[in-house]
Amino acid sequence: MESKNQYKLRRKDHSNSVLKAIARQLTEERFTDITLSCHGQIIKCHQMILSACSSYFNQIILDMATPNLVICLDEIKFWQLEALVALHVHRTNNNGLRQAQTVY
Known about the structure:
Mean pLDDT: 81
Strand order of the largest sheet: 2-1-3
CATH topology: Potassium Channel Kv1.1, Chain A
Strand content: 5-15%
CATH superfamily: Potassium Channel Kv1.1, Chain A
GO biological process, one term: regulation of transcription by RNA polymerase II
Shape: elongated
InterPro entries: BTB/POZ_dom, Dros_DevTransReg, SKP1/BTB/POZ_sf
Keywords: Nucleus
Number of helices: 5
Structural class: alpha+beta
Protein name: Longitudinals lacking protein-like
Helix content: 40-55%
């Protein structure tokens, strides 16, 4: 007779570990496939993360489906862009974030 045992594997800190790994990869600029440019300064990011966290970036990425896409955002200040990326990737709240959230 065939055994039909089922096992459920679970890692309690899986979500937290994945988020930390993604943030570390971004900090080390590993596997980045999109560049955000603002007033001559750049931030390298992951399309999948930006797309998942922002309908604004999702639409741009879908419309411009290009490897190594560069998005120029000179209509905002660089600190606002940094705050938005920090919010989406690092899940951190820093000074000025409330003002940056109104941009998009």
